[in-house]
Every structure is written in structure tokens, then in C-alpha cells.
Amino acid sequence: MSSHTTFSQSFSVDFQYPVLFTHNVFSENNDQLLSLIPTTGTSPVNVMVVVDSGVADAFPALLNRVSHWFDSHSEYVHLVRPPEIVPGGEALKNDYRLLMSLVDQMLAYHLCRHSFVLVIGGGAVLDAVGFAASLVHRGLRLIRMPSTTLAQNDAGIGVKNGMNLHGGKNTIGVFAPPYAVINDFSLLEGLNDQSWRDGISEAFKVAMIKDAAFFNELLELAPALGRREAAAMQRLIIRCAELHLEHIATSGDPFELGSARPLDFGHWSAHKLESISNYRISHGHAVAIGIVLDSAYAARMGWIESDQVSALKQALLTCGFDLSPPELTQRLGDGSLQVLQGLEEFREHLGGRLTLSLPAPIGSIREIHELNSGWLDEEIQALQMSPCN
After folding, report:
1. Do residues 162 and 202 share a domain?
2. What is the pTM of this model?
């Protein structure tokens, strides 16, 4: 008998979760949330609700509406405690004491694998609460209710959950698909201008590598988006979400086991800009800058037209983005641009080999493994000096 024995284990798991689009989910005549929760048991299903402080501030009546909705459906669902308010933005993703306090509450209220955590908030809060829920009993049933444009069309509909550590973005985390996602467009009414526009850059990102027709449509929608027209934003969110979900389902790598990550187009510099600015620069703002830099690089490679880069820049400016913050030209002691450290950090994140996706042409991608830092420096200087800014 051989002294070496190997068993090859192989199995597949079918993940399915709905992404719903609605208005005023906690109104009495809206049954979307209830339709997601099994109601055939002998006792009500336990639910813990966590709310982003920014959402609570923007909608002072929301917490009472949530509690009233659960009271009205107490035959089927049981709210284990009043809605828990957590800090919005990156604050929760940077605070492990807060994370563990959520885990402690989930255990204290005896949530089990058939219980639900409903989280209402922006992408950072969805990330952190999703991470906490994934740790309890190896995963509670998570329903995400994204409250920002960026979360509704990107961060809130995917399979990733994470926290920041050691100054890095999403340095620890898990892949844990949600039980369901509810995009309530009425939550967008409370957004400030920055949070409103943040989702726009992610829409341009996915359009440039997936759908040329959508890219051209976004160019036309830019003035309406800059004016905060709801119909334009709803169109953007639905199509962008559809493209992201299609990628997760059909890319063959939903849990990012490989080195290529097309949906991170523009993100190597975006993540670094966020950390350099101590998150003063929001994720959507940083992505807007990142896709302009990478698009300009693609134009230098001859893969897209320079006129398309100009159109992208003008559209983002029309929507209200600042494409030349001071952090973009911050230099280290050796004279190199600090943002370029993002390339090495991305290389490490991808397992040692840098693999970036650039549009080539618009609507498709080509992978690249090295970038010319001199070209990038020139593009950053050109962006800083652009009269459009």
C-alpha cells in the first residue's frame, strides 16, 4: 500500500439571492420585505436591525417606522431589540470594538442561522455589519438595504464583506453572499451631494469595461445626474447593478480566486487616495479619479480614443467630481508620487502579480501586468493642470 494517499474533493454550491427595487419599503402597503422572510414556522422569525447613523440623521422618523412595521407584522417577525445605530462611513470599518459589540449583541439575543440581520446604510456599514453577521454561527441571514447610490449599484449587491486594518482598505474580510438586497429609492432623497454622486463613478467604471452603449448613455445623462434628477439616477442604478450581478454570475470567479479583477478597474489608485486622505476623499470620488487615470493610460496604449477620455472627464466634472485633489500630487521624500504606492499594494493584494484591467476598446477589457510610472506621473500632472478643474 502506498504511503501517500490523496483524495480529490470537489463540490459546487448554488447561490441565489434576489435584488429588489422599490420605494418606501416600510410603508404599510409594501410587502417586499415580508416576502423575503419565511413565514411558515410556528413562531415569528427573529430579526436584528442595524442602521447607519447618517441614515438615521437624514430620516428622523425612520427608526419609529421600522419598529412600527415590525409591530404590524409581529405574527411573522420579531424585532429582538430597537434598531441599533452605528457610525456611518469608514468609522465602523476601522473600529473592531464596535464590530465585536455587534457580534456580542447577535449572540446575546440568541440569533441563530435561521434568524435575520437587516442592515440599512451605506457601503461601509453594509460591509462591516455583513462581516459581523458572517462570523456568528458561521453566518446569519443578511438582508442588505443600501442607502446610497454607490451601495445600491455596487457595494451593496455583491458577495464581499470586509474591514480595514493596518491602514489598508478591506484588508480582512469574507465572501458571504447576502440572503437578499432591497434597493429602496426613497432612501436616496436624504443624501448629500457627495453621496449622491459617488455611485456615478462606479457606473462609468462598469460601463467602460462591459457596455459601450451604457457608457454613451451615461455621457448623455451627466447633466441630469448633476441636477440630481431621480429618474436618471434610478436608470443608472438599475443598469449598473444588472451589470455587476451579471459579472458575479458569469465571470467564473465570483470569489476572486484568480489574479484578474475586472471590476477593480481604476481602483488601485482609488484605494490609495482614500487612505492618503484619511478617507476625506470618498470611495466614489476616488474611483472617478482612478478611472480617468487608467483610461488616459489606455489611450496612451492606443486601446481607446483620447476623445473618449475627454468625454469621460467632462461628464464627471459635470456631475460635480473634483478630479484634482491635493492628495493626488502628494510626493514622498524620494520625489515619487505617494499614490503610486497603490500599485505595489495592489500587487500584494493580488498574490504577487499585478493584474489590472483597462478598457480596450470601450465595453471590453485587456489585462496589463505593468504600468509605466513615468506615464502615470505625466497624466497626474496633466490632470492637475487641466483648465476644466
Report:
1. no
2. 0.90
